[in-house]
Amino acid sequence: MSYRRHGLGVSPATVMFLALAAIWGTSFPAIEIGLHSIPALSFAAMRYTAAGVIILAYASIATDRWRPRSKHEWLAASVAGVLVIAVYHGLLYLGELRVSGAVAAIVVSLTPVLTAGLATVLLDSDIDLVEGLGLFAGFAGVVIVASPGSGSTDLLGVALVFGGALAFALGAVLARPLDTDLPIETMEGWAMLIGSAVLWVGAGARGESLVGVEWTLPAIASLLYLTLVAGCIGFLLYFELLGRIGATELNLVGYLEPVVAAMMAWLLLGQVVDSQAVAGFAAIFLGFALLKRDVLSAVAIDTADAVRSH
């Protein structure tokens, strides 16, 4: 895999970037549909058990290492599995029992802002006044989404999704000192399996059972979509884009996901995101723009150069 960055621009990377945003944005209403029939943590566990097996099978073919070998590598996979897969998705699925997928996507878009804040606290990263304002704007956005007056939100539901986003950000920060030579496909596959095991334990603790589940066509379609499309195809696109444009620019996909989630929630479920949630999302994006103003400027320059070259 080549790790030379090309930028987004008008290129195959742009097409893959938009496809990834569409796939992962659609996953939020897909989760909501499946939760009508399948218990929350069992639903997440099934998805990542199956996706983990598929990704590892791919890793065994596409890479030279299909499993971790050292304690350090197992620790890295475990951190990703517990925080990024299990805690994040467990809280997200529980949160979507109370809030719409579109609102959940807006709250999750805070993740890059939370990552920057946690890096400052845990890794002694420097932060200037503008970046501090960015952190404040991001948190203010979640407060706007969760505050009374919005007919589409529930305070506990937003809190659960926010907790999931915080866990994802914490996993991303803790993974930095644990950087390994393990292929990312292998890392992701084992993280999925470790995370799904934790989710199965959580499902048992909640008393969830699949015995009485009514396997309706929408529930089956939701599970298949989340496993095969959002899980497998989505992560394969993610791996490819990681090599083409780098992790920092790839974070921008999180700000297209709420737009896609809102459109699909309207098409599939007849839901409309209210103006308060839109204002919250605008504040969160402003926070990200202040924190990553250099990245956004570089993307804009790359895009303009690519357009001129065509």
Automatic annotation (TrEMBL):
Keywords: Membrane, Transmembrane, Transmembrane helix. It comes from the Archaea. Residues 15-145, 156-291 form the EamA domain. Signal peptide: none annotated. The chain crosses the membrane at residues 45-62, 74-95, 101-123, 130-149, 155-175, 187-205, 217-238, 250-269, 275-291. The keyword Membrane applies. InterPro entries: AA-Vitamin_Transporters (IPR050638), EamA_dom (IPR000620), EmrE-like (IPR037185). It is found in: Membrane. GO terms for cellular component: membrane. It holds the Pfam family EamA. It is a multi-pass membrane protein. This is EamA family transporter. It comes from Halobacterium bonnevillei.
